[in-house]
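Lab notebook, bench 4. Still working through the backlog of constructs that have no structural model yet. Next entry is a single chain of 129 residues. Request: give me the structure tokens for it.
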Amino acid sequence: GGGVNPLSQHTSADKSEWMNACSAGGSFEYPYGPDYQADICNGEDFGENAALPVTEPAGCIGGLPGVRNMSGNVYEGTHECDLGPPEADLCRRRCGSYFSEPTLLRCAMGSSRPRDHVDDYTGIRCCYD
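Model written out:
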């Protein structure tokens, strides 16, 4: 439905559109299935040690058909926030990056950073209905 989702509801596939898409409606731990597989998405075990183009790796598809890279590559900033002043407004970032260990690549995993946080391994996902 869009809009802000509170930080506290990030693991609910019913409340979080991102979690719903990543976990196939709450069915999977990882976007591609129930168990971690090092050779599918770009995490620390994949061996690239850098961000890849959005279309790579080709097998990193899951959650929903046609949705790519919901695990690894770069963290995804989401609109799951505890609203406050800009310097204290924390928002969820999801599913790890190219240097993340397996537990950080799960759909339900996420860390929070101030809304204005910038680094080389966090991005955003553009989508439409």
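Notes after review: Helices lie at 17-22. Residues 17-22 form the longest helix (6 residues). Flag for follow-up if needed.
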